[in-house]
Amino acid sequence: MEFVDRLLTCADCGGEFIFTAGEQLFFFDKQFKNDPKRCKPCKSKRSGVGVQAGSGPAAAGLSRTETRTECSECGIETTVPFKPTQGRPVLCRQCFQAKRPVTDGGITAASSTTVGLIASATNADISSVSAEMVAAAAQA
Ligand SMILES: [Zn+2]
Ligand SMILES: [Zn+2]
Question: Residue 31: what are its φ and ψ, rounded to 5°?
Answer without folding.
Answer: 60, 35
